[in-house]
Amino acid sequence: TERTYIMVKPDGVQRGLVGAIIARFEQRGFKLIALKLVQATTEHLELHYADLKGKPFFPGLIKYMASGPVVAMVWEGLDAVKTGRVMLGATNPLASAPGTIRGDYALAVGRNICHGSDAVDSAEKEIKLWFPEGLTQYSHSQENWIFE
Ligand code: GTP
Ligand code: MG
């Protein structure tokens, strides 16, 4: 099954939203594969957001992402990448629907609480970047109740 990289950004950590965000992914039926609190370096964040290098907001984005620890997670399940993005809501909070993480907790595009991989190949790259130590394997007792 598919895996996605989800990260609570520094504003989400400071605002006490880590538990609420984890609960949404757990309750949806995803399996937690990896989890850690990290103070990322600017070099690491520039690799994570390499696709956005050159955008006018890039320096501010890196500064924001380095302003405090983030919670790095890997979640696994059916269509984890696309469903994760739906759960996050649109990038611009003006367009993010109530019921989504950004639609419920964020007002500004530059303080939007949570990251989610945008494609299966970027998820694979991001998981390697944030968890070079590798991932734990275990079986999840609810699987037969969540999948057909
Ligand atoms: P991530 O899950 O964080 O990757 O967001 P995304 O995939 O919804 O958007 P994208 O990858 O295009 O941009 C990454 C992050 O840069 C966004 O989540 C925002 O925090 C920030 N960002 C994107 N566009 C803008 C912008 O126009 N202005 C500002 N200030 N920040 C932006
Ligand atoms: Mg993105």
Could you state the order of secondary-structure elements as H and E? EHHEHHEHHEHH
How is the largest sheet built, in terms of strand order? 2-3-1-4
Count, helices: 8
- Shape descriptor: globular
Helical percentage: 40-55%
Q: What structural class is derived from the secondary structure elements? A: alpha+beta
Percent of residues in beta strands:
15-25%
The molecules bound to the chains, other than polymers, are: guanosine-5'-triphosphate, magnesium ion
| Uncertain runs | none
Q: Quaternary state, please?
A: single chain
The count of DSSP E runs of length 2 or more, i.e. the number of strands, is 4
Major sheet attributes: 4 strands, antiparallel
Describe the protein:
The chain is α+β, with helices and mostly antiparallel strands. Helix content is 41%, strand content 18%. The protein has eight helices and four strands. Strands 2-3-1-4 form a four-stranded antiparallel β-sheet. The longest helix is centred in the N-terminal third of the chain and has 11 residues, at 18-28. The model has no long low-confidence stretch (mean pLDDT 97). It binds guanosine-5'-triphosphate and magnesium ion. Residues 52, 57, 60-61, 91, 109-110, 112, 115-116, 118 line the site of guanosine-5'-triphosphate.
